[in-house]
Specification:
By secondary structure, the protein is mostly helical. The chain contains ten helices and no strands. It has one domain. The two termini are 21 Å apart.
Length: 238
């Protein structure tokens, strides 16, 4: 439900606001021939997949649609990496979209019937999420000052403490997930941490500045990744 609702939200706001704050690195799609048409179709597909995932009869088809959409979104980030390989932002954006792709793959696995295929997809989703956790760790290190500023000042002891704590938590989660040692627990704790990011950071910012498109985008993206991690954590086999 969290994954699908977030997917639909991101698709809706992207169709409403065609700006870099909303699309972020996906503005690369605009540069393609007929990019606006392609991007709009992908956003409509994302909305349809998000809504369809809420209904059991449509869930499998919705999972396949979202897998295709997030595969395309992930690939759309690669030109930025090639053009500026020393800029971490492009890598961070890729792994944000890749984490959503892992969630969609896990959703396909959850709907699968063949034990071998389900296990293979589950393992791919787990390993992919582990790589994403490494990116999240590095992102918080590279943008440490910005990360600390996002922490609400009323939470004790201070912003810097929580920035360090969550960075270490991402790093430990990455190790556990990739080594498959207490991986399920690590993913569930990471899911909880991501959900708290959404509740404590982005919802208050959205309430305070509802016209800032970046806040809407980050809220949707945070809960999309939260839902993806949650789905992978709940797989029976990975």
């Amino acid at each position: 439900m969290v994954f699908g609702a977030s997917a639909a939200l991101l698709g809706i706001i992207a169709l409403m606001w065609h700006d870099a704050d909303t699309w972020q690195t996906l503005v690369q799609i605009w540069k393609l021939p007929s990019g606006v048409t392609i991007g709009s179709c992908l956003m409509f597909a994302q909305i349809a997949g998000g809504i369809g995932s809420q209904f059991p009869r449509a869930e499998r088809l919705a999972a396949i649609i979202l897998t295709i959409v997030y595969l395309f979104f992930s690939l759309a980030c690669i030109p930025g990496i090639i053009a500026a390989p020393a800029v971490f932002e492009h890598y961070g954006s890729f792994f944000e979209q890749f984490s959503a792709l892992c969630g969609a793959i896990a959703l396909v696995a959850a709907m699968g019937a063949g034990a071998v295929m389900v296990k293979a997809l589950g393992q791919a989703a787990r390993l992919g999420l582990g790589l994403c956790a490494i990116s999240f760790t590095l992102g918080q290190i590279v943008y440490f000052r910005f990360t600390a500023q996002l922490v609400p000042k009323w939470i004790p002891p201070n912003q810097r403490f929580w920035a360090i704590f969550t960075t270490i938590a991402f790093a430990l989660a990455a190790i556990a997930i990739l080594m498959n040692r207490q991986a399920r627990l690590a993913m569930r704790l990471m899911t909880l941490m991501l959900a708290l990011f959404g509740v404590l950071v982005w919802i208050p910012r959205l309430i305070a500045h509802p016209r800032t498109h970046f806040n809407w985008s980050e809220l949707g993206l945070t809960f999309l990744i939260t839902g993806a991690a949650w789905i992978i954590a709940d797989l029976r086999s990975f």
